[in-house]
Design goal:
Blueprint: H1 10-23, E1 27-35, E2 43-50, E3 53-58, E4 63-68, E5 73-78, E6 83-88, H2 89-105, H3 109-115, E7 120-124, E8 129-133, E9 137-145, H4 148-168, H5 176-187, E10 190-203, E11 206-219, H6 224-239, E12 241-242, H7 245-250
Parallel strand pairs: 6-12
Antiparallel strand pairs: 1-2, 1-11, 2-3, 3-4, 4-5, 5-6, 7-8, 8-9, 9-10, 10-11
Amino acid sequence: MYPLHFRTWLFLLAGLNLCAAAFAADFRVDNRVYAGNNKEPQSQGSTIFHHAFVYDFLQNPAETIVFDKTAGRFVILDDARRIRTELGTKELENFTQKLKDRAVKGQDPLMQFLAEPSFEERYDPSRRELILFSDLVNYRAIVTSADNAVASQYREFSDWYARLNAILISGSRPPFARLKLNEALARREAVAREVTLTITVVKDGKTQPATVRSEHILSLTLAPADMERIDLARKSMTAYKPVSFDQYRLAK
């Protein structure tokens, strides 16, 4: 997961990377996210797993995020402005660690919890329902079984994507609660087809729940249209103008 800088490892790693690509599963997950009780999705897109890469296509805004596992990096493509930027997984780890340190030292109980979350966990096999609950944050996931390769790849990407969102979205909360959910799903070799996150927030001196729900449809085969999108993303990774991450974020 980390960028490698030592030439003595290159030959060994080349062999390992070939093995990883050979055993990687190809699949697609279509995603929709709803805020509160809204019936129209707040955002939607598709995440395509192909060999050692993951391609996340967001519809609005028109943005493509490519996870290059071998190089330990995310390539972020703004399809409207035809610019691109990169973030390494080590950068994401450093950022989220600083986010955690600030939250732990702060005075906000919710942020403190999200920096070091602890949940009680329940699972109802008859309903395929996984619940992580606490006084401040609750997850309810409806799960579906997946083979080990799919569950493992999905968990790894989801972990890094949660960290990425923490730096991409200004004012984001620490990602560690979501990592706990991902861990619980992975233990069951499962992926979530629906996740409801409820956070207790304080507004005007009163506590009230804020809810976000997401839907995820898993397809275990890729269509020709998926391969076309992958090919376009690969071309965009070289064709788009490179900018720093700060420039990319300021231009949005």
